[in-house]
Amino acid sequence: MAHTQVQIEHSQLWRLLEATAGRERTAELFAMIAVDAPLLTDAGETVPRVVLAQAMNMLLFAKNLDAVPEGKVYVTEKLAVGGQVVFDHGALRTVAAANTGALPTGELAFKRFLEPLGFTVADVYPLARLKMTGRAYCHQDAPELVAQFFVSELHVDQFSPAFQQAVDNVVKSSRDPLNDRAKALLVKLADARALPFAEAVELLPQLVGCFAVQHDTPALADYEALLAESAEMAWISTEGNCFNHATDHVDDVFAVADALRAQGMPIKDKVEVSANGSVRQTAFKATQVERQFKAADGSLVTRTVPGSFYEFITRDLIADSATGEQKLDLRFDSSNAQGIFKMTAAAC
User: Fold this and answer.
1) pTM for this one?
2) Confidence bin at 339 (pLDDT 50/70/90)
């Protein structure tokens, strides 16, 4: 059943987003992203963790769309015919290195707040070809309603000494986007599974700020050394912990891909299909962006590099192994993931 605008605007989720991003942006988010009824509880004195998680996800989706013009064109056209985005998951990349400055290493930079928000690791996906590991964080309170996070971690110790030195040069300047107050609020959230409204408003922008570049401008020589061994680490050196991609859950990914290809949109040539056939994914090729690097003489130079992209996924219903109940297959697939990761390598 469709929600009335009155119901939406009286929800805790609307109030939280409006207090953080303003009324106009909030209206845009609700028009663009499908939000299920259980996430539209009436406004109260405290914000449940699931509502805070959903608010963060909606802001992150919009942030990714602002960075990916191809995705924005697709979503704009979808909205024009009365559709909405079903936000499936967002992906980000982290670095398991010896020295990441003030930022916790690898997935720990995100585990520390995803878990208080109610997310838990549903499965671990080896990405051996990329010398990475992926972890799917799924929300415990509403697994089919709140977008997941696919957090990948690059294992620096599996690369050459020259590569490891270049990584160190880049990430040792990393800052921690969470201040002491935010960390204290996360402890409180983990314990109570909710925060008073004012504290949720205070914490939300800091959470969104974690999905950004936390280190200084990289040296061009370091970027080139990273690119020689890992397109993924080269991407991290310019884009940091930004969303690598956001994903729209569609009914038929093959039909969507064919339609976009016919329009001349930069869609991946192949749809990735999981080993069991129940998860199918494709994506736009990464947006090309201009980034600055430090030259050997200390001056700044600009290069065009791959940025973020927008993905499409179709998930089938499968029988729950314990209950036999039909549920959405929320799993990922290592082969699919490594195929999708190539979207940021193609134009390197």
Assistant:
1) 0.95
2) confident
